[in-house]
């Protein structure tokens, strides 16, 4: 019988002095694999140099801490000694946390989709020692399944091709890299041209296209799996705020999706917070991981729905409760330091989909209930009533006898009273269960999204504690992630662990999300320090990613990533789980131009928005933030300068502006203790009698000032028409 290590007929590579090198890595995901017998290496030059020296391919495995199927493949294959021995002998195994290295994830996801026609995590990619991909897939089982080979079969086939058909392997890698390069739109995004003016009909066309893909019965767009369409919802809310023939349709679509999600198992009915996605049309069976980037965006969207005023079918008051519980969940469950050790100063990345129960990973175990369990806890009458109310049945919807809480509709009257009575009991019981693991890395861009969300939600919900939290998080990012430069643009580090930043510089999305959060925070607090920091971050983003007349997502952090996409840095203009870096940069530029009068920023934003025409009709679901930014740009956006002494009257004027749904409205507030004023405030002061007043402007051209809340409200309504 052949030794397993030579089953493909080749000679195994002599084992070098190698071992698993992940134990000292800060990433929680990488440390999850530190005990594997696989000789994992972190992504970097050393691993690729080792592959070149040994003349073997790199096996690249990409995942993230909250990923259920990553845990499954790890248990089935990476913990198996025979599989590890074969893998170590013929490959250099490399592990990547996709949340730390989205640049790596993006280019090899493109390769995986091109090769296999599918994408997802865990991602399994085979590379030349220079970083170019030649074979890829996602999850591979330990034994063959219909239509899917086992992981061992894949390893043997790749090893045989490497040793017997090297020329074909290298030719495939070259062709694939060229294809990835050709698919990148960076060359088409020229930042030094004169774009055509935005056409308002594009946005109406996008609303029409979205209506054709809407699931009117269950909310959302398309079929399962269904993800929260956060950026699209922001666009629809902004579009609904401006009178037009399509405003009502936009409002209704947004309301249906927001209502369906918050009344479903996607939203944690006990603790708050949204799961990553649902595997069913009606949002009844979530994939249980909870991500910061989802919840930050959804918090802001629900707050903006409250600001819009809601609909009879989904009232603003109900959405306000969802927003408040989501904010509380963010700070309690993702806050760092952990709950009970002081107020949150930063937010962790995620909670796992799995809960470890008796040493076994069980998906969603913390969140599942049975009819018998509810009756035992609540008594037979209440237990049976709650089981029916929350669609907890036998057999279960997730496991043989377990289901999440899924009302699926608005609760009112006696049903709502019952739920309010039993909810604390259920919450206490669940709090005693094992909890999902938490990935405690702090990602700059995602925390920037949270700064914007907490600031806006605090203003809309009259929750100053949320605004305070936004300021603490912004302060952490400034202290830990931001590296100012006395002579040139500063630098933002993407990730920190335990209060120390390390690893690659931020991507375009990190700079843009952070700047967006800071501008939002300035508008709410009036603290000029946040405006100054936002300006510095935005200037650094433009210097780093928008040089030479083009735009890119990364700044060449890894030669291997550059090689994998044909020798160039890429740009992805499509929204994914979060807005694209390009769209987010355009949004921040529009805001800054409105506050500063910068014609250069306005022109740069317009050039990025020139990407929109081919996307608005054909692919609006992946262009939500570009559409939202375009809606703001078409609205002006309206500029509001709040001048005069800091009095209760000024606070009332400011509060009225913060509760306006005018798309992209920017607010500058006089801050006498902060040095030179924000440009929008220059030459604008208190009324002759010393009272505060508001100047409403477009392109720095202002109407006569308004001195009362009622007058501000009338002027804003007139400017929207």
Overall shape: it is globular
Termini separation: 81 Å
Taking the sheet with the most strands, its summary is: 5 strands, mixed
The radius of gyration over CA amounts to 26 Å
Please give the share of residues in helix. Answer: 40-55%
Name the poorly predicted regions.
1-15
Strand order of the largest sheet: 1-3-2-4-5
Mean pLDDT: 92
Q: What portion of the residues fall into strands of 2 or more residues?
A: 5-15%
Number of helices: 26
Give the beta-strand count. 22
- Assign the structural class, choosing from mainly alpha, mainly beta, alpha/beta, alpha+beta, or little secondary structure: alpha+beta
Condensed summary:
This protein is α+β, with helices and mostly antiparallel strands and 721 residues long.
Give an overview in words:
- By secondary structure, the chain is α+β, with helices and mostly antiparallel strands.
- 47% of the residues lie in helices and 11% in strands.
- It is built from 26 helices and 22 strands.
- The chain has a five-stranded mixed beta sheet with strand order 1-3-2-4-5, sandwiched between helices. Strands 15, 16, 17 and 18 form a four-stranded antiparallel beta sheet that branches.
- Strand 12 and strand 13 form a beta hairpin.
- It is globular and about 85 Å long.
- The chain starts with 27 loop residues before the first helix and ends with a helix.
């Amino acid at each position: 019988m052949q030794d397993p290590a030579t089953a493909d007929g080749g000679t195994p590579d002599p084992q070098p002095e190698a071992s698993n090198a992940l134990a000292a890595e800060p990433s929680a995901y990488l440390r999850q694999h530190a005990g594997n017998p696989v000789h994992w290496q972190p992504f970097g030059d050393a691993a690729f140099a080792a592959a070149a020296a040994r003349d073997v391919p790199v096996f690249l495995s990409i995942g993230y801490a909250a990923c259920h199927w990553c845990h499954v493949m790890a248990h089935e294959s990476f913990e198996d000694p025979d599989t590890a021995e074969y893998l170590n002998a013929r490959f250099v195994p490399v592990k990547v946390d996709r949340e730390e290295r989205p640049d790596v994830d993006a280019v090899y996801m493109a390769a995986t989709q091109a090769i296999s026609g599918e994408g997802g995590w865990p991602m399994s990619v085979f590379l030349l020692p220079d970083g170019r991909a030649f074979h890829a897939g996602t999850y591979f089982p330990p034994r063959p399944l219909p239509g899917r080979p086992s992981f061992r079969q894949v390893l043997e086939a790749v090893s045989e091709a490497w040793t017997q058909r090297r020329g074909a392997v290298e030719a495939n890698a070259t062709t694939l890299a060229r294809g990835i390069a050709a698919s990148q739109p960076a060359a088409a995004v020229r930042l030094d041209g004169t774009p055509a003016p935005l056409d308002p009909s594009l946005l109406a066309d996008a609303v029409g296209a979205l209506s054709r893909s809407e699931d009117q019965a269950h909310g959302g767009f398309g079929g399962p799996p269904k993800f929260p369409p956060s950026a699209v919802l922001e666009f629809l809310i902004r579009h609904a705020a401006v009178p037009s023939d399509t405003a009502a349709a936009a409002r209704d679509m947004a309301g249906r999706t927001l209502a369906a999600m918050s009344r479903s198992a996607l939203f944690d009915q006990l603790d708050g917070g949204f799961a990553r996605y649902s595997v069913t049309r009606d949002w009844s069976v979530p994939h249980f991981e909870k991500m910061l980037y989802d919840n930050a965006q959804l918090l802001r969207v629900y707050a903006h729905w409250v600001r819009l005023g809601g609909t009879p079918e989904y009232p603003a008051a109900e959405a306000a409760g969802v927003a408040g519980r989501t904010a509380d969940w963010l700070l309690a469950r993702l806050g760092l330091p952990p709950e009970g050790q002081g107020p949150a100063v930063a937010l962790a990345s995620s909670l796992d989909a799995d809960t470890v129960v008796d040493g076994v990973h069980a998906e969603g175990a913390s969140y599942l209930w049975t009819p018998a369990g509810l009756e035992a806890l609540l008594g037979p009458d209440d237990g049976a009533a709650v089981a029916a109310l929350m669609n907890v049945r036998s057999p279960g919807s997730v496991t043989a006898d377990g289901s999440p809480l899924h009302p699926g509709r608005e609760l009112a009257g006696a049903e709502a009273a019952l739920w309010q009575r039993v909810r604390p009991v259920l919450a206490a019981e669940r709090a005693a269960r094992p909890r999902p693991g938490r990935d405690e890395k702090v990602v700059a861009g995602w925390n920037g999204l949270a700064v914007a969300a907490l600031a806006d939600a605090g203003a809309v919900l009259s929750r100053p504690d949320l605004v305070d939290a936004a300021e603490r998080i912004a302060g952490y990012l400034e202290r830990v992630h931001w590296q100012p430069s006395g002579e040139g643009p500063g630098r933002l580090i993407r990730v920190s662990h335990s209060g120390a930043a390390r690893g690659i510089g931020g991507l375009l999305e990190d700079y843009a999300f952070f700047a967006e959060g800071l501008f939002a925070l300035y508008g709410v607090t009036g603290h000029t320090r946040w405006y100054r920091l936002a300006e510095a971050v935005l200037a650094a983003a433009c210097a780093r990613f928008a040089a030479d007349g083009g735009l890119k997502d990364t700044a060449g952090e890894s030669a291997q990533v550059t090689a994998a996409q044909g020798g160039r840095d890429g740009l992805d203009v499509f929204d994914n789980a979060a807005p694209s870096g390009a769209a987010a940069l355009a949004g921040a530029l529009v805001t800054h131009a409105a506050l500063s009068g910068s014609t250069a920023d306005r022109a740069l934003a317009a050039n990025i928005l020139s990407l929109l025409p081919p996307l608005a009709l054909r692919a609006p679901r992946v262009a939500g933030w570009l559409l939202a930014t375009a809606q703001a740009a078409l609205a002006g956006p309206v500029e509001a300068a709040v001048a005069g002494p800091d009095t209760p009257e000024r606070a009332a004027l400011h509060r009225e502006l913060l509760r306006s749904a005018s798309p992209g409205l920017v607010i500058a507030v006089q801050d006498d203790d902060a040095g030179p004023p924000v440009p929008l405030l220059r030459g604008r002061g208190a009324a002759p009698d010393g009272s505060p007043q508001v100047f409403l402007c477009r392109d720095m051209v202002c109407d006569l000032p308004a001195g009362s809340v009622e007058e501000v409200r009338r002027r804003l309504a007139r400017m929207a028409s």
